């Protein structure tokens, strides 16, 4: 391409947590269901313009239990991020969607998730009511670490 500049599309990545309602479970959460639910809310809140701006680059990269990573266009990320709190149902199951982090790479989302999970484990150990419960949590963490090496 002579004389023309190539334009690189920039993406952001959103780390979200999908908390199931009292009678629901995230075990059946599929990327397609999450995509549809998010796009419906973007369309309701920002209309056809918002849906069109987000749809082309929105991609559900990871769904793992209660945590998901979404790839979204940087230039219209604000449209999607503002709609996330209003996602109340995914595949007719009641949920609460919580934005944990928005970054420039999947790796940055992974780092944030590890930091948050470590804090949750630390809080669980600190709030354990008996030394036996505390030791049980520590033993479980050590087994997981041994298995992952």
3D architecture notes:
The chain has 149 residues and is of the alpha+beta class. The chain is 48% helix and 24% strand. The chain has helices spanning 31-55, 77-83, 106-126, 131-148; strands spanning 11-20, 59-64, 67-73, 89-90, 93-103. Strands 2-3-1-5-4 form a 5-stranded antiparallel beta sheet, sandwiched between helices. It is globular and about 60 Å long. The model has no long low-confidence stretch (mean pLDDT 88).
Question: How do you describe this structure in short?
Answer:
This protein has helices at residues 31-55, 77-83, 106-126, 131-148, and strands spanning 11-20, 59-64, 67-73, 89-90, 93-103.
Q: Which key features would you list for this structure?
A:
149 residues; alpha+beta; five-stranded antiparallel beta sheet; 5 strands; 48% helix; globular
User: Spans with pLDDT under 50 lasting ≥5 residues?
Assistant: none
As a percent range, the share of helical residues equals: 40-55%
Shape: globular
Average pLDDT = 88
Instruction: Please outline the major beta sheet.
Output: 5 strands, antiparallel
Topology as a string of helices (H) and strands (E): EHEEHEEHH
Gap from first CA to last CA: 48 Å
Order of strands, main sheet, comes to 2-3-1-5-4
């Amino acid at each position: 391409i002579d004389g023309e500049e190539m334009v690189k599309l920039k993406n952001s990545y959103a780390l979200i947590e999908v908390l199931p309602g009292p009678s629901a479970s995230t075990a059946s959460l599929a990327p397609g269901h999450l995509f549809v639910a998010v796009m419906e809310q973007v369309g309701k809140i920002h209309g056809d313009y918002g849906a069109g701006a987000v749809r082309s680059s929105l991609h559900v990269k990871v769904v793992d239990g209660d945590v998901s990573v979404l790839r979204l266009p940087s230039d219209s990320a604000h449209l999607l991020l503002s709609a996330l709190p209003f996602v109340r149902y995914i595949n007719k199951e009641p949920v609460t969607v919580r934005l944990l982090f928005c970054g420039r790479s999947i790796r940055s989302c992974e780092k944030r998730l590890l930091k948050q999970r470590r804090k949750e484990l630390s809080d669980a150990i600190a709030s354990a009511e008996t030394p036996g419960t505390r030791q049980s949590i520590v033993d479980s963490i050590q087994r997981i670490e041994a298995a992952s090496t």
